[in-house]
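quick one before i forget lol
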Amino acid sequence: MLVEEVEKDGWLYHLTVVSGGGPNAGTQYEQLVQKLMELDGDPNCVLWRHPLLLHSKDPITSPLTSLPSSQLQAEAIKLFKSCQLYTSVLMDSSGIDYHVVLCQNALQQCLTYPELQSELFCGLIKQTSKHLQAKPGVQVTKTLNKIKHSRNLLLCATQSLFLCDSSGAQKASPTLGSGQPLPADPKINPPSFTFIQAWQFLALAVSLFVPKNNKLLWYLKLHLQRNADTKSEVGKYAAYCQRALERTLENGGREAKPSRMEVLSILLKNPYHHSLPHAIPVHFINGTYQVIGFDGSTTIDEFLISLNQEIGCRDVHQSGFALFSDDPIEKDLEHCLNHNAKLCDVISKWETALREKGSGKFENTKVIRLLYKSRLYCRAAGKHETDREKLLLCYQVNQQIQQGKFPITRELALELATLMAQIDMGEVNSERTRGSGSSGPSSAHIQQAFSKFYPARYREDLNEEETKNVLDSLQEKWIGLRGRTQGDCVRIYLTCTRKWPYFGATLFPAATPSPEGPPTPVWVAVSEDAITLLDQSSMASIVRYGYSSVVTFGGCQEDFMLVVHTPEEDGSHHPPGTHKLLLCMNKPKILELTLLIADYMNALGRPVPGTPQTGTLTRHGSRRSARSHMTSVPGQPDLLKMTTEVDSKLQRLDAKRRAQVDSSVV
């Protein structure tokens, strides 16, 4: 039983939205829309001249749509005022942030209170509807002039000029006497920039959400259709809005307000002229990048399809590559992006985190950085790798070598550095080698290759004489590769490095706690079939756990916990029974490791065992980097969760988990 009046109003509102209401249901504005709908939007209907449907210089005194509470009704009036402020002030490039922030705040309000979304659309439709000039000699216009002083008659009479009698079998449509559109009335209408800025606002709104009321959605589509053309600036914005609306209906609404980048992209150029109004560079490990276009509804999955078509890579489901973003605060942290997320939402949340967790104000010079690299590696799929994938893998392995995550001797390091120099710089501009008639790489190129591709841990141990010897050897070997194509060198490089059993695995620094002394540092290698602990210095295997033996895994207070079960018949390598392993790691890496293991298990078709909630594994909600295309993670990571909330949840959850696991461990 509903006893609260507010709850009753809420239910009545939602039922009215779903049902669409009757011809006399809703506000006066909604009744006019209903009447136009009954007349199939007859372009000659005099209802299009109703002042309530046209641009207003004055603020509204009551909402245009039905709202369930007085609070929302008050917010609706403020929302219309925001639209008026946005459109009435001429946009200037030096002070454009005024319009950016005003627009962002209004749209965020509509995301916070979804009931206001239809209100915003009605307000923007109203503010983009021009007053038309009166057509002389038409009786209905004279009638309008006679009765325009009587507001009650115009707005309330059920059989008046504006609310046509629909009781007959044939619905009559009051007309303006001509099927030709009338020109705008310059005496009543505001300056043209007002309408253009209102259309810009509408262009941003249609990429975020759509009216939930079918009647208002129909009216929005009709409004766009009536105004769209390929000649005028307003008509082009209307045509773009049509495309954007269809995309939002297809892909669903957004979670976050538009980013500054998205707003500026719409405000500074008419999006009609571009099939995709936004563009962003995607970076690769080899230092190159590719600019890819997208719109307000583009998902990460759609974006990756466009990217792979441009650069010549397979679908990510086959290649194992993934799209990452940098962290707005922490320098060396990356987030794998959820394939179902909207790219514009990712950018917006990144900007918000930068502002709210950074200096408190937005840094215009700092923008999100997207990186494309291999994440899930499958040896069996290697035979189908494209040339671009092989090239990027070379650079990724080289990065692991530089970070000390790949076992390599000094001799092999020199050979691989030479191959990478030929891959990266090719047949460089050369100088005459002293005492020989041949040419070779210049000393500057040799030094560049040495610094870029020879492991830092080996460079640091060399004295001046040893450094000179290595540089001479590098030059000699590089000359020996003359005539080798990039493809040849890539093939040789991968053939050599793939001999390591953990090629393609992702390595995480960790430590195993010791009751007798300090923790022992190890590498946690996650590959397609197992989790392996490697000695940190020699990188020899310490212990290996196949995914079939994993009982559970995930964050446990400040540690990563892995519980495995070994049957008695498989006890030759591990003691039979259930065992718990704790690894000391930082929280962002705990989450990254958890998601990567889950994705590999899903790729193998194995059910993922119960793991702690991802939101409890990190002090930043953004650490909930989406798993990958192999798994479905609901929603986009919330970049704004605070440390205290996460830690309190973590302690409660892990206290229970430790008790349960300890009782079950043999």
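fyi Residues 63 and 77 are 6 Å apart (CA to CA).
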